[in-house]
Amino acid sequence: MPFRVRDILLVSSLYDSFIFEEDGRLYELIRKEFQGLNLSNSPELKQVSGGTEALELAKQKNRYNLILVTLHIEDMKSTEFARKAREAGVETPIILLGYDNISLREIIDSGEINLFDNVFIWQGDFRLIIGIVKYLEDKMNVEHDVAKVGVQVIILVEDNILFYSSYLPMIYTEIMKQSQELISEGINLTHKFLRMRARPKILLCRNFEEAWEYYEKYHSCVLGIISDVDFPRNGKSDNGAGISLARMVKEREPDIPFLIQTTVEENVEAAKDLNLSFLLKDSPTLLTDLGKFLKEHFSFGDFVFRTEDGDVVGKARNLYELETELAKIPDASILYHAGRNHFSNWLKARTEFWLANALRPKKITDFQSLKELREKLIEAVRDYRISRQRGVISDFDKNTFNKSSFFARIGGGSIGGKARGLAFVNRLLSDFEIRNKFKEMEIFVPATVVIGTDIFDQFLEDNNLREFALKSHCDEEINTRFLEAENIPYLLIKDLISLLEILEEPIAVRSSSLLEDSQGQPFAGVYDTFMLPNNNSEPEDNLKDLLNCIKLVYASTFHQKAKDYIKVTSYRNEEEKMAVVIQKVLGTQHENRFYPEFSGVAKSYNFYPITPLKPADGIVSVAVGLGKTIVQGGNTLRFCPKYPNHLIQLSTIQDTLRYSQQGFYALPLEKRDDKVKYSDEGLEIFNIDIADEDGVMNYVGSTYDYEHHTIYDGVSRPGKKIFTMSPVLKYKSLPLPEILDLMLEMGSWGMGSPIEIEFACKLSVPKDEPKQFAVLQMRPLVISSELENLDLSGYNLSQLICRSSSALGNGLYSDIYDIVFVDKENFDRSKSREAAAEVADFNRKLSEAGRKYLLIGVGRWGSMDPWLGIPVTWDQISGARAIVEANFKDFNVTPSQGTHFFQNLTSFKVGYFTVDYGNSDNFIDWQWLYNLKPVERKKYTVHVRLKHPVSVKVNGKNNAGIITKPDDV
Q1: Residue 364: how many CB atoms within 10 A of its CB?
Q2: Widest Cα–Cα separation across the chain
Q3: pTM exceeds 0.70
Q4: In which band, very low, low, confident or very high, does the pLDDT at 147 lie, cut at 50, 70 and 90?
């Protein structure tokens, strides 16, 4: 009996399982394959969050065919689970699904990776799960299927986990998308028809001996070989193993397709000598070129619509395009294909068995007219596409979409990380009936439509943009080319027109890439977001604005900031795909501006806890207006949901006046120039006094009495109005702390890790209606390393460059030879943008040289307010291994709390020190820095290089850190 994965045990946090089942395709595709093979039992997927429960299920003999384990499970480590399973005699294959981060690398380095049958790296593409299932089935069934029916075999030789995790999904996807040039009646060659009816098996090998054994055993059925050059042979790494394998294979079969993939250009000549195809792994278009190779050499292609006389009238690459083309092709073509079962044959070859079996019994004579036949075909394809996603995220339909709160998608592919987080929290709100749990406030995700990544791919291909965008280094040029692109899928335009007929309020157009807001690498703030008033007098102008913003979000995938960010990760820019979130903006119109009463960011882990707060109590930052103030590090009000009245910023009148919010962001509603509308200037900042005039401060404000130098709760008295949230936090006009505490606890439980939530609140609603709490985003935080210990005792001041009692990070960094620091004596706060540019220049030079460095400055790093610090963006300091911020000579500032800034700090494990001179335990040895010989001195910044490295040590449990001088000092 051939091996089939009928029952899968997924051991993961609830959020990880949601990622893998994002739109139901794993379960759906396996089920359809079983039906196509006339098997009685459909496969099932069982998800559990705890290792103990999973062990009991795994011990049931013959119960599960595959166990998928993620790095995040509730009560034990994934390695402990695998070890206990093997000790208990569990023989079921166990596959580890990891992220390319420190946790996975530690497992590999320790040798514990051998506890698993294989390991794959999750990069946001749902096809990886299908690839794992197919990989396992192919491995178990190849001998049987080759012997019985002569199926073809593709040998893939690759020992790099990240690479084969990318390859397998793509290769399997190409096979699933085989063209139906296989249809009979003289359209296709017989041998192609037979080959396409039996899907080729893919055999993954990680060393020379395994690859040669497979070739020797199945050489008569090998369709082709894809091989790395450097992989193990005879138990040792061999940098010529791939060339040797190719030579041996070509001696037997000179015409067999053989693709060499290499990072060493010298190997290209060796490949040419053997007449081999080759690709450079460092090529910016590697995955694209690999796809072309598969199509050209393995005969993969599209469904070709023809007429009786052979004329081509259309092509379809997928079900989406099949539905589109069926509405356009001539009657003669429908008659031709329907009369020969071409549609059902094509669908079976793609393992769409349910739809194929539904169509095949139908005859042309069953329909009263050709019009009815066409409509039924389109309806069947559309209904099938929708049914695959029902219960998770629905396809957009103007007849069912509800603008008050609904989640839908346009197009296929992934919905990306940001949309995935939104969809997950939307499911939690529904599953646990949270929406109306608090009578004073309704909790919901605003009306959201996501454009899937398939549209992104189609847009790039139809406008010939991908190769240009990958190679261009000019953001303005990229934006221009994308805006000029005219080939936009018809169905997308049609759905957007329908959407704009429903949504008459302002809308946000947000990025949602595959890697954005993912576990391990958040990509926070890397891509563009736009807000549109959506109030043009002509509907076509609203559509134009929306399409242009979508194009610009697509373009931001290839901006230099994104490329620089990806460069310091293990991912490739061409692996990134972009979905787009279109979301109703929550707020109220005040004259010609639109904004919510306040927005906020809530984190379930506090990086800067102050007694009695604990790190796990979480922290919330709120500000009047739109959330740009918060995510870019402006002045906000911070509080802990468990201690809502413990407000350090408001401890004195002087602090309250100094640190309270002075301005807020709103969306202008008047007509403006496109250049402004489609830029960072699309939002306008207003003085906080305007919010008082708009009546907003009635809900969230207090009053400063100049005459008596006193702050009073409420805004009824004359005086300066201050954003304090006093009515909400002190007088409990709303259950905001309780809602946030619940959301953080539920979200952390669901994701299996600490989280961050972005939200907005609308309070100006009709009298009998509840106030509105809208969840705009939920994503995981990366903080696990902060929970470990490191001993910092035994050092005297002469050995230290810096000491801080407020440090973020954990561990020892001892590979830093370069220091970039701000000359605090010459620094002028009015010139902070110039200083930021100088730092960016040093960062670029050091990053190009591959040198990490220590960055020391004054004021807030990453502050949007240049008077409070140095307004760098993350890409301008991305090479820093550790960062220090100290107070100005004449002015103290609170630590940086910009959301995007801190997300990137924690993701890249950057040590972060805040030095408060008011604390005797905090200091920087500035004189030692000034005595060092500069490599380069600019107006406000200096770069020095040491013969021996400095050491950065951070104790994550008590937030203490030191930076020691080199040993030769």
Answers
A1: 11
A2: 97
A3: no
A4: confident
Check residue 115 and give its pLDDT.
92
Q: Which two tokens stand for residue 217?
A: 């055993």
Residue 796: what pLDDT? 85
How many residues in the chain? 969
State the Cα–Cα distance between residues 299 and 138, nearest whole angstrom.
20
Q: Is the pLDDT of residue 845 over 90?
A: yes
Instruction: Give, in degrees to the nearest 5, the angle at Cα 634 between 758 and 642.
Output: 50
CA distances from 72 to 50, 322, 457, 613, 777 (A): 9, 39, 31, 26, 21
pLDDT per position as a tens digit, 43-70: 677 889 889 999 999 998 888 999 999 8
Contacts 24+ apart (CB under 8 A), 732-735: 733/699, 734/440, 734/441, 734/761, 734/763, 734/771, 735/438, 735/440, 735/441
- In the DSSP assignment, the letter for residue 437 is S
Q: Residue 33: how many CA atoms within 13 Å on its side-chain side? A: 21
The contacts of residue 343 (CB under 8 Å, 6+ apart) are 337, 356, 359, 377
Residue 391: Cβ within 10 Å count: 9
Q: Which residues, at least 6 apart from 186, have a Cβ–Cβ distance to it below 8 Å?
A: none
Q: How far apart are CA 563 and CA 568, in angstroms?
A: 9
Q: Which helix (H) or strand (E) holds 462?
A: helix 453-462
Asked if residue 394 has pLDDT above 80, the reply is no
Q: What SS3 class is residue 93?
A: coil
Contact 231, 238 (CB under 8 A): yes
How far is the C-alpha of 655 from the C-alpha of 318, rounded, in Å?
61
Instruction: Map residue 933 onto helix, strand or coil.
Output: coil
Other Cβ atoms less than 10 A from the Cβ of 848: the count is: 9
If you count DSSP H runs as helices and E runs as strands, how many of each does the chain have, helices first? 34, 45
Higher pLDDT, 580 or 428: 580
Element (H, E) at 176: helix 161-176
Among 494, 731, 747, CA closest to 603: 747
Q: How many CB atoms lie within 10 A of CB 250?
A: 16
Q: Provide the edge-to-edge strand list for the sheet that holds 118-121.
A: 44-48, 7-11, 66-70, 94-98, 118-121
The answer to whether residues 57 and 64 touch, using CB atoms and an 8 Å cutoff, is yes
- Backbone phi and psi for residue 235, each to the nearest 5 degrees, phi listed first: 80, 0
DSSP-assigned letters across all residues of 279-315: EETT-TTHHHHHHHHHHHHTT---EEEE-TT--EEEE
**Quick one: three-class SS letters along 369-384?**
CHHHHHHHHHHHHHHH
H or E element that contains 925: none
Q: How far apart are CA 79 and CA 634, in angstroms?
A: 43
Question: In the predicted model, is pLDDT for residue 545 greater than 80?
Answer: yes
> What's the Rg (C-alpha) of the chain?
30
| Pairwise CA distance, residues 604 & 620, whole Å | 9
pLDDT of residue 512: 92
